[in-house]
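Quick illustration for those who missed Monday's session on complexes.
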Amino acid sequence: MSRARQLYDWADTRLDVESAQNFLGKAFPAEDSFLLGEVALFCFLLLVLSGVFLGFFFEPSTSDVAYDGSVQEYQGEEMPEAFVSVLHITYDVPFGMFIRRLHHWAAHLFVASIGLHMLRVFFTGSYRNPREPNWVVGTGLAALSMGAAYTGYALPFDEFAATATGIGYNLTVSVPLLGDFLGQVVFGGEFPSSATIPRLYFLHVLVIPSAIAVGLAVHMAILIRQKHTEAPREGDVETATETVDQEDDSVIVGLPAFPNQAAVSAVVFFLTAATLSSLAGFLPVHNIAEYGPNDPAGTPSLIMPDWFLMWVYGFLKLLPQWASFTVGPVHVSGEFIGGIVLPGLVFAAVAAWPFVDRVPEPTHFTADPLERPRQTAVGVAAVAFIMIASIAGMNNILAEQVLGTTTSVVNPWLSAALLGVPLLYGAITYYLLRDGGADTPPESLPTGTSQGGESDD
Ligand code: HEM
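Prediction with protoporphyrin IX containing FE bound:
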């Protein structure tokens, strides 16, 4: 018996390599849009790696220290240590600026790819029975990813980020009855207190990434257990071992996990890393030297959250004053409704959707969005709703710089658009697709000529 065989047998008796091989033969449907989830996965990996690098140099403290680094204008100035350490990373640590930018762009691509992945799952009906649990876990991951980005945004403790973080503090303390307690837990008391940055740092580097890692593990475990959905087949498919009936959705046709899908995933990883490296190399991020350290007495003229939180900011800006009310000892503020209740309802509606669009039988083929007028209309309306809310978040730019007027003039229009445009877009979509897209040709089958593989149970 050869040495290699002996080694294999040794490992097999201990680790059951044989069944791992079955796993490696698992089929992955060869659908390009299925790679969006992988892009999100690789962004998370790159975020963790670049975050570890930044963690070696970042100081989560707001105590003042004298600056001694490459930025001339701050030389010798007493400034918060967190701010000083980020200046240090950016201008003095070798590769510091590159890694900081990479971390920043990876965070943006992470949220963007999650959003696109979610839309792909939605429009192809891949959330239907039996995949509802994974949709719900995914909704949690989307919320956590925004939380991770938000807490990271605050860390440099510069003027701009600190002001935007202050908005988060005001929202947190606006929660009736529990507000002060939550403000203590998340922000370490009235913002900005000396405990705020350590608290947000703890959430950003440990609590939220751990929760995302656990959520991802559950997401992947469910995916492996249930297997992917697959696009409908044009006919029976000949694989290396058998003929798979066109209608038989108990067997998945696609690329074997190893080596084919692993090679595709490696390409996706390197493309993701290359895209982020190019962005980090050429596009600057949040220039903290320009904003300066947090100054409790000053307010920067233009405060804006990141694009993926702009819709929440839009709710805050559109909510009328009279939306606040008091019942006995409980005050319900407009901030609470716009910044917490409405976004909470949006996430709850997203999580609940598979239970609204219920199918009694397990469904393993993806749907054609053109053949689902109701669901596609709801999806189009939802995207329009988030877009208009995001535009409302930039109402000052729209009013002052684009239309040359004031926000009080554009706000009523934006409020009407927030309700009207989604309804209109949804109705148009439904009207265009209402005959079930009968004329639409079926999707061509990408796996027809690929190596077949089938699920292992
Ligand atoms: C950290 C964020 C996320 C990561 C890294 C991630 C990753 C993945 C990956 C790699 C897959 C398999 C390939 C694919 O279908 O794209 C997948 C499938 C799936 N994801 Fe996610 N996902 C995330 C968030 C979400 C969100 C926000 C939702 C929906 C609310 C969601 C719902 C699903 C569902 C239902 C499937 C099964 C789809 C099918 O079998 O066709 N995921 N996810």
